[in-house]
Structures are given as structure tokens and as C-alpha cells.
Specification:
27 strands, binds alpha-L-arabinofuranose, alpha/beta
């Protein structure tokens, strides 16, 4: 036998006797090394005058047969309380840079009608304005995040809006607010100076916007008792040049810099984006790998931010993120109404883990949009309401709000599909003020369960409780006729050990564990 043939035979024999083992999944949780608080603001939402988000989704008017309080849907308020919405961004989006706030105050029947040129060209009657938005925020317990109009509004208009909302003085705008029925100013912590000013907000170059930002920002005043956290328009996706220019020219004038990233199954804005509910594993893979994409984007922008701001004074604010598909067949293309499946739950769970793990710099995030648009947590059909799988993930992750991030080290096998790969598992962990450890885990692989061995350093755990979000198919979703197809259930596939635990994560699942 020739030497080469002999070597090949030996290799084959070795491979048969010792088949390659799948990568073991291991997790280390450093329970005694937490330093950073996971801001509850990472769990924020976004409400835009777009399609049926505001009108029907939130606002039905006082005369509606749909049960409401001062025009705001009661069923929506009580559902949103369950996910403890920490903050709500409004009025857009692209709509923000064509919104003139004075159109939305005073007696509703006298408010001017405008055309919503971005979203379907429909007539906007301005019945939902500043007072209604603030009322809604108070009802659901969320902090308002107001996005000002830089693209088509004046500095004076923006300055007066802030005075209207936050001044306690005997001043023209504060008095106008009083005249419209609100004596006390509102607390307004978060104010964004424009939206996507590189695109729908004015098509500006970063050098130009940096100067515009500095100018507008100068006139946003901190009135007595109110201090504003100022958010500058940041980059889209991987545009690090935008970040570089903004950070070099305006970092000292801002508290936050935004980032927008949407997940499209085709990866392209041209042509069909793919159906929200009718897809195969190819499109599942294309979406669930976006947590890794988000992690990479955050990493790139943070490298630039760190260069200019070592002390991490400026937070990254991911104020638009989520899945973006084709609209539901038969609906207005300008309304961006899409359904949501288990696939979106996995995207939400793994992306929220990424945000948690970057909590030292990521200070806020807002999924788009809260109701009836892109990756919404609630869908409505007139008087009916359903909770999407994404809603359930937000609810399962509430224990992370304002908890201390625990550093983790995860070694796991990849989820591979058709030559592509992404880490098969995703995790984040936190400890709350009572010392309980919360761990959220996602198994992105739709075909195989994953065994994970976790070691907990610095804490002994003797008790656990768990919940799981999983379904029979990747495409599983809730409908108005069958609203509970995807909902969390109890989970007990956990074995506690002296130094940690082992867990078996079902295929395509999000698992939340509490250990004490
Ligand atoms: O979320 C829909 C739109 O996407 C927003 O209005 C805009 O900011 C972004 O381009």
C-alpha cells in the first residue's frame, strides 16, 4: 500500500472511531461582578403617526364605542402596563420632521388638517397632539421621548414647544398650555433634535447637521425643575463616518446619539422584503442572525464614540429597530402593517440580550412601532386586540429593567444554514435588588434543542422558576380568531447543580429563568 493511501485510511478510521463532537454549550455567569445598571429604557417603544399606530391603535376619540378614557383605548393601556413600557418616542420617525406642534393643541374641532406625506398621503386631523400623547404616557407609566422638527421646522418653533411642555413661568407658551387645560408643566426628560436628518429629515450631510444640531440644541432650555437629555440624530446602520463627524463636532452638546437599524429578510430595500408569516428556514435564518448584526454595528459605533468620549458621557440610543417585512396583503402599502411570528420573538429576545450586554453605553432603545406597524407588540382590528409574540418577550424580560448586568461568557455552537452561520444561542443575565438572578436565553436554531451547562461564580442557587416562549412552527403567530397560539408557558427543564445548572433549551425558543 502506498504511503499516501495509508495516511488517508488512517484519517478515515480516526474519523469513524472518534466522530467530530458538536461544540459544547457552556455559560459562565459572574454573579459577583456586576457593575452596570441595565437601564429600563432599553425596553422603550416608538409611536408614530403612521398607518393605524396612533389612530385606532391608541386614539379612538371620546365618542368611540371602543371603551376609552379621554379618547385613549382602555384595552391597549391595560395590556401595555404588563410590559412596563419605560418610555415612548413620538411623533416620529419621518413624520416628526414635518410635524408642527401648534397644529395639535387647542379644541380638537379647530385643529387644522394636514397631509401625512410620508405615510400613505392620508389626512391627519391632529386630534392626537401634545396633550393626548402626554396623557397616554401618564396612563401607561412611560416617560415621554419627544422628537422635534429640524427638517421643516424653525428653531423658534422647537424652542417654544419645549417652553410649552416644561415651563412653570408666567410666560407666553406656558400660559397657552394653561389655556388648553394643563396647569402644571409635564416632566420631559428626553428630547431628540430631529430624526434621520441624513434622509427623510432633510438629506443633510453630517458636517451640516452637526452645526444645525448645535444651533437648535442651544435653544432647548432647561426650565426650572426639568433637565433635558438631548439626543442627536445618529447614523443609519454602519455609517461610522456620520458617528465620527457628530462625535468630533458636537459630542459635548449631546447626551445621546441615536442609531437606526432594521432587519429585512432579503437584506435589501429594493423590491419585496418578504412576507411576515409565509417564509421558510432561509428567511428565518436571515432574520435571527440580526442580533449578531446589531452587536457588530454597536461595536463599530462604540469604537468611534470611545475615541472621542472615553468617559462614556454620551449614550447610544437605538431609537428605531425591529423587523421590516412586506405589508399584509390587501392593506395600504403606506401604512406598513405587518403580522408577527415566533421568528420576531427570537429576533426581539436575542437583540434585547445584545442591548443588555452593552448597557454601559446603550442607554435607550425603541422598537418600531408599538401598535399596528412594523415589529409591533399589539395589533388591533377595530375593537379587537391581540398580543404578538414580541409582546411576550418584552413581558418575560421585565425583570432586567434597572437590574445589575452580570457579565457572562458564552461558548456555543453555531446555527448554520446554507453556508451561513451565527451563534446558535444568545444570553444575558442580571441581578435585582433582592439578589435574584434573571437569565434570558434564546435558541435560534429552529431544528434542534440545545443543552447548556452554566456555572455561576459568586453565588449559590437553590431554587429556580422558568418560562418559555415556543411554538410548533417557525411561522406560528397569533390572530384575532386564535390570539393565544404563541404565549409563554411554564418551563422546568433545568437541573440545579452545586456550582450552577444545566438547561435544555427547546428548538426556536426564548427562555427566562429566575434563580435564587
Ligand atoms: O419606522 C418607519 C420609518 O423608518 C421611520 O419613520 C423612519 O425614521 C425610518 O426610516
Amino acid at each position: 500500500m502506498k504511503r499516501a493511501t495509508c495516511i488517508i485510511l488512517l484519517i478515515v478510521a480516526f474519523a469513524v472511531c472518534f466522530p467530530a463532537r458538536a461544540q459544547e454549550n457552556k455559560l459562565v455567569i459572574h454573579a459577583d461582578q456586576g457593575k452596570t445598571t441595565i437601564s429600563r429604557n432599553l425596553y422603550g417603544h416608538f409611536s408614530e403617526h403612521l398607518g393605524r399606530c396612533i389612530y385606532e391603535g391608541i386614539w379612538v376619540g371620546e365618542d368611540s364605542s371602543i371603551p376609552n378614557t379621554r379618547g385613549i383605548r382602555n384595552d391597549v393601556v391595560s395590556a401595555l402596563k404588563k410590559i412596563k413600557v419605560p418610555n415612548l418616542r413620538w411623533p416620529g420617525g419621518c413624520f416628526a420632521d414635518e410635524y408642527h406642534w401648534k397644529d395639535g393643541i387647542g379644541p380638537r374641532e379647530k385643529r387644522p388638517k394636514i397631509i401625512n406625506t410620508h405615510w400613505g398621503g392620508v389626512v391627519e386631523n391632529n386630534h392626537f397632539g401634545t396633550h393626548e400623547f402626554m396623557d397616554f404616557c401618564e396612563m401607561i407609566g412611560a416617560e415621554p421621548v419627544v422628537c422635534g422638527n429640524v427638517g421643516s421646522g424653525t428653531v423658534q418653533e422647537m424652542m417654544e414647544w419645549v417652553e410649552y411642555m416644561t415651563s412653570v413661568a408666567d410666560s407666553p407658551m406656558a400660559n397657552l398650555r394653561r389655556q388648553n387645560g394643563r396647569e402644571k408643566p409635564w416632566k420631559l426628560r428626553y428630547f431628540a433634535v430631529g430624526n434621520e436628518n441624513w434622509g427623510c429629515g432633510g438629506n443633510m450631510r453630517p458636517e451640516y447637521y452637526a452645526d444645525v444640531y448645535r444651533r437648535y440644541n442651544t435653544f432647548i432650555k432647561n426650565y426650572p425643575g426639568n433637565r433635558i437629555f438631548r439626543v442627536a440624530c445618529g447614523p443609519s446602520d454602519g455609517d461610522v463616518n456620520w458617528t465620527e463627524v457628530l462625535m468630533s463636532n458636537a459630542a459635548r452638546h449631546m447626551d445621546g446619539l441615536s442609531l437606526h437599524h432594521y432587519s429585512l429578510p432579503t437584506g435589501s430595500w429594493n423590491g419585496s422584503k418578504g412576507s411576515a408569516t409565509k417564509f421558510e428556514e432561509k428567511e428565518w435564518f436571515a432574520i435571527v442572525k440580526h442580533a449578531q448584526v446589531m452587536d457588530g454595528l454597536i461595536g463599530k459605533h462604540l469604537a468611534v464614540m470611545d475615541k472621542h468620549d472615553e468617559k462614556k458621557k454620551v449614550g447610544l440610543v437605538v431609537d428605531e429597530w425591529g423587523a421590516w417585512y412586506d405589508v399584509e396583503p390587501g392593506t395600504n402599502p403606506g401604512f406598513l402593517y405587518q403580522q408577527a411570528t415566533l421568528r420576531d420573538a427570537l429576533l426581539a429576545g436575542s437583540t434585547l440580550n445584545v442591548f443588555n450586554n452593552h448597557a454601559d453605553r446603550v442607554k435607550m432603545a425603541n422598537i418600531a412601532q408599538i401598535i399596528n406597524v412594523l415589529q409591533s407588540v399589539i395589533l388591533t382590528d377595530k375593537d379587537k386586540l391581540l398580543l404578538t409574540p414580541t409582546f411576550h418577550v418584552f413581558e418575560m424580560y421585565t425583570p432586567h429593567h434597572d437590574a445589575t448586568l452580570l457579565p457572562t461568557e458564552l461558548t456555543c455552537g453555531d446555527y448554520e444554514f446554507s453556508g451561513g452561520r451565527t451563534p446558535g444561542l444568545s444570553v444575558s443575565a442580571s441581578k435585582n435588588s433582592a439578589g435574584k438572578i434573571n437569565v434570558t436565553l434564546c435558541n435560534l436554531n429552529p431544528n434542534t434543542a440545545a443543552e447548556l451547562t452554566a456555572e455561576i461564580g459568586g453565588a449559590k442557587v437553590t431554587k429556580f422558576s422558568g418560562r418559555v416562549l415556543v411554538a410548533d412552527t417557525m411561522q406560528a403567530h397569533n390572530t384575532f380568531d386564535h390570539p393565544e397560539v404563541v404565549k409563554p408557558g411554564a418551563f422546568s427543564d433545568v437541573q440545579l447543580k452545586t456550582d450552577g445548572f444545566t438547561v435544555k433549551l427547546p428548538a426556536k425558543s426564548v427562555v427566562a429563568l429566575t434563580l435564587e
